[in-house]
Specification:
By secondary structure, the protein is an alpha+beta fold. It has 2 domains: about 10-60, no CATH class; about 65-120, Roll (2,3-Dihydroxybiphenyl 1,2-Dioxygenase, domain 1). About 20% of the residues lie in helices and about 40% in strands. The protein has helices spanning about 15-30, 75-85, and strands at about 5-10, 30-35, 40-45, 55, 65-70, 85-95, 100-105, 110-115. Strands 2-3-4-1-5-8-7-6 form an 8-stranded mixed β-sheet, with helices on one face. β7 and β8 (about 110-115) form a beta hairpin. The longest helix is centred in the first third of the chain and has 12 residues, at about 15-30. It is globular. The model has no long low-confidence stretch (mean pLDDT about 90).
């Protein structure tokens, strides 16, 4: 697969990220690590299977699930998505030393993320 899914997000509108993290941890046995200033619960891929992701409270009061697809140039893929009927949601945003990501809506309104490969041990 040339552009694999590399990350997911489960964002809850109720504003209680810890409760949502505990729900998924209890349901699936996921280790959710929210030990960071944003309380963003990171979920690691399990022993080489599946895809890691994140669980958190919403910043804007909306809930959503997003998949992130690995690309080499988020801006180029945003431009292509928009030319094909997509809508820009977030321009390329850099988290230094970790990842550059962006978001768009597909023609049906689904939120899709684009992300560069994360460096090892990030």
């Amino acid at each position: 697969m040339p552009n694999p899914i590399t990350h997911f997000e489960i964002i809850g509108a109720a504003g209680d990220g810890k409760k949502l993290q505990e729900f998924y941890s209890g349901l699936f046995g996921w280790n959710v690590d929210a030990n960071n200033p944003m309380n963003y619960g990171l979920v690691a891929a399990q022993e080489g299977h599946g895809t890691g992701g994140g669980i958190s409270a919403s910043q804007d009061g909306k809930n959503y699930v997003t998949i992130y697809i690995e690309v080499d140039d988020p801006q180029a893929y945003l431009d292509k998505a928009i030319s094909m009927g997509g809508k820009l949601i977030m321009p390329p945003t850099d988290i230094p030393g970790m990842v550059t990501f962006a978001q768009f809506q597909d023609p049906e309104g689904n939120l899709i993320g684009l992300a560069t490969a994360m460096p090892p041990n990030a």
